[in-house]
Amino acid sequence: MKISEKVKSQSVDPASREILQLAADQEIETVWNRLEKQQPQCGFGELGLCCRICAMGPCRIDPFGEGAQKGACGATADTIVARHLVRMIAGGAAAHSDHGRRPALLLKEIAEGHNQDYTIKDPKKLKAIAGRLGLNTENRDIKELALEVATIALNDFGKQDENTLAFVKAYAPKKRLARWQKIADDLSALSEKTIGILPRGIDREIVDIMHRTHFGVDHGPLSLIAQGVRAAIGDGWGGSLIATELQDVIFGTPKIREATANLGVLDKEQVNIVVHGHEPVLSEKIVELAATEKMQELARAQGAKGVNVVGMCCTGNEILMRHGVPIAGNELQQELAIITGAVELMSVDVQCIFPALAELSQCFHTHFVATSDQAAFPGSIHIQFEEDKANLCAERIVTMAVKNFINRKPERVQIPAFTSQAMVGFSVEAILEALGGTPEPLLDAIKSGAIKGVVGIVGCNNPKVTHDYYHIELAKALIAKDILVIGSGCWAIAAAKAGLMQVETAKDAGPGLQQVCEALKIPPCLHMGSCVDCSRMLVLAGALADTLGVDIDDLPLVGSAPEWLTEKAISIGTFFVASGVSVHLWPMPPIAGGAQVTEILTETAEEVFGGAFFVEEDPLKAAEKMAEIIAGKRLALGL
Ligand code: BF8
What we know:
- By secondary structure, this protein is an alpha/beta fold.
- The protein folds into 3 domains: 77-251, Substrate Binding Domain Of Dnak, Chain:A, Domain 2; 270-412, Rossmann fold, CATH 3.40.50; 426-637, 3-Layer(aba) Sandwich (Rossmann fold), CATH 3.40.50.
- It is 51% helix and 10% strand.
- A 6-stranded parallel beta sheet has the order 6-5-4-7-8-9, sandwiched between helices. Strands 13-12-11-14-15-16 form a 6-stranded parallel beta sheet, with helices on both faces.
- Helix 24 links the parallel strand 14 and strand 15 (582-585).
- The N and C termini lie far apart (52 Å).
- 57% of the residues are buried.
- FE(4)-NI(1)-S(5) CLUSTER with Oxygen is lined by residues 278, 313-314, 330-331, 352, 459-460, 489-490, 530-531, 565-566, 568-569.
């Protein structure tokens, strides 16, 4: 198939290019076409200078200094930019943390005997979590312990006292906790107004943001950003971490395993079910039910060879990490999967799901099934998922997919013949196991300079950036500099598809990293899971800091969200910076209209937290800058 220059500019992924070309030839609309129709986009919005918070607005600030310099209420450019930014953090933290609430509630239900469809798959991890929380774990009944852990987690969402979250206190390194308290004290003294950094309640910090950004409340850029940081810490070391930890307890902690990635995992001869979204509660069950002889037999009766469940986005990452279920693609491939004509059913839960999928699926035989009470998709089939009837619900979905196989139009099926093998499953536990039980070998490699440092890369994809280009080029440039790359979300899927998660790829790494990877038989890029699993990176950073007796910002670590798109990415970036890790972003977030906000995020944050944001369009220059930061940290550590 001849690929046009335009399609080449849209994606570097060969499977995606093939389907994009097919879409272009058949005039099937995708996100790239819709984004094109949005051009030129609003310059005020891009700078963060448009305020829609009250009905005097929308107000806008003239960035050239000639027109209005204040909103009707008197809000300055920095107030408007800061309010908008922290509302983005609130949105991201809410999405992650509400996700975390679900496994906490489910664990409670399991512990109380109210749910028979799920069990506790990893009691060892439950004990480890309980131990961190200071609970007695000796000779305990596992369900009793589960109830205590779930109760503490749920309390962290809704507690009303001023104390710091139990999970934050249990997981963040002591030095960082003390630093956050000192930052709050210093900022309060400086501004003569109480400023808090340590989160009190996961939900509370998000509500606090919505309150203080309401018309006529908080107008101080620093005060607003501090609250954004507080909510983001409540996300990273709270809600997201609770999601990861309790999902591991219920579904099992990921172990290193082999898996396959890209659209080629769809099977011409099987019933294909794509599970897309973020919460593994239902997708775990779909995987389980689809594998039963009953469903496989039903599929054979329809003329298919079996049932093939594949993942998309972070729900996909969850089942990839825990079961090695193949992953069809990342965020910009959700429409492309349907356009292959080979998907009998796409089941979605929450987050990062295009509403456009409903209309698109109607042009094919695909059943587009929404399942969450929080997420309506006009034009979809809604099958309400209820956890206490999980098996029934999953069976209904799988049956519907199987029965749809006869409606497939073979002449419309085009599955790109591209897949890549990847070694996945790098939970902190799996990494430590590969290292022989302690972080020491990794620290030794860092001390010796074999590994210069570690960069954590997170999703997303954004059609403003050539799909997967930045993810792949940045990772390649970093490993060539002996920098170990770890990551999650849509970056991890991009890296898996590009073959960067194979042990053999170590040959493209610098000599030091190559040697370490070959000795440990691990790839130079490690898949740590879904976006809530950014918490795994925090936990790993904390373990390294504690072992060395330093704070996280002393370590040669950098973060990046090179094709970021969602508010969740802004929350993630903020909790990394707050934890002492500098974060690279591309595209530019909507903050440039506020000079003071920009200064706080890119400069002041460095002095305060030991890490700051930076923006860079070119992956090679970004890698250079990361190597510089790492070199600086190494020097300060005396390495
Ligand atoms: O949570 S990387 S586009 S799929 S937000 Fe979404 Fe971004 Fe992908 Fe997962 Ni994360």
